[in-house]
Amino acid sequence: MQTESAERGDNLSASAGPGAWQLRWVELGVALFLLVVAGLVIKDSLRLGIGWADDGPRSGYFPFRIGLALAACSAWLLLQQLLRWPRLRSRVFAEGAQLRDVAAVLLPTTVFVAAIPWLGIYLAACLLVAWFMWRNGGYRWPWLVGLPLAVSVSLFLLFERAFTQPLPKGPIEHWLGF
User: Fold this and answer.
1) Cβ partners under 8 Å of residue 159, min gap 6
2) Which range, of 44-48, 109-113, 172-176, averages the lowest pLDDT?
3) What pTM did the predictor assign?
4) Which residues lie closer than 8 Å to 131 by C-beta, 6 or more apart?
5) 21 forms bridges with which residues in the sheet?
6) Chain segment 49-92, per-residue pLDDT in tens
7) Residue 157 vs residues 127, 151, 162, 165: alpha-carbon distances, Å
8) What is the 3-state secondary structure (H, E, C) of the chain?
9) Residues 112-117: contacts with CB within 8 Å, 24+ apart?
10) Does residue 94 contact residue 102 with C-beta atoms inside 8 Å?
11) Measured between alpha carbons, how far is 26 from 91 in angstroms, rounded to an integer?
12) Which tens digits make up the pLDDT trace of 91-150?
């Protein structure tokens, strides 16, 4: 007889291997994070003003209500999590191999975003595409140079020329006079 978890097709009830994250800690962390975000939204909305002015709602009117809704949902999640805490002891959110797969995408993407102010979005995108082609696709050098350059040039033509929407540029674009 299959368990409810196995019928759904998830792996939440598997035994925890090395580097596994327990589901209860992840759920608790998400609920607390969302509660903090809700608090920041509410605080900033109060700073902007949450009432009505002569010409309509003030800037913080709608964000304040969204912050309240987010806080209520977060508090509900937190309460549910604390009530189910003992039953979730053996539930696994993700194992080490799954977390490594996520990190294999998340870390290069984080480096990409951090590099944009210095390299510009086009060079950073070129390097990111080349990295994923090399690391995950196993492509050889002609493809690792040609396709990322084609992607970056296409993005440049699309945003800078067709849409006339400038994106962050780096030293290469400035050197070329853009």
Assistant:
1) 165, 166, 167
2) 172-176
3) 0.59
4) 108
5) 94
6) 998 888 889 899 999 999 999 999 999 999 998 888 888 777 88
7) 18, 10, 6, 10
8) CCCHHHHHCCCCCCCCCCCCEEHHHHHHHHHHHHHHHHHHHHHHHHHHCCCEECCEECCCHHHHHHHHHHHHHHHHHHHHHHHHHHHHCCCEEECHHHHHHHHHHHHHHHHHHHHHHHHEHHHHHHHHHHHHHHHHHCCCHHHHHHHHHHHHHHHHHHHHHHCCCCCCECHHHHHCCC
9) 116/168, 117/168
10) yes
11) 11
12) 888 888 888 988 999 999 999 999 999 999 999 999 999 999 999 888 999 999 999 999
Structure tokens, 108 = 């290069």
β-pairing verdict for 21-22 and 52-53: unpaired
Task: Tell me the two tokens of residue 123.
Answer: 């060079």
**Tokens coding 102:** 């996520």
Cβ neighbours around 98 below 10 Å, total: 16
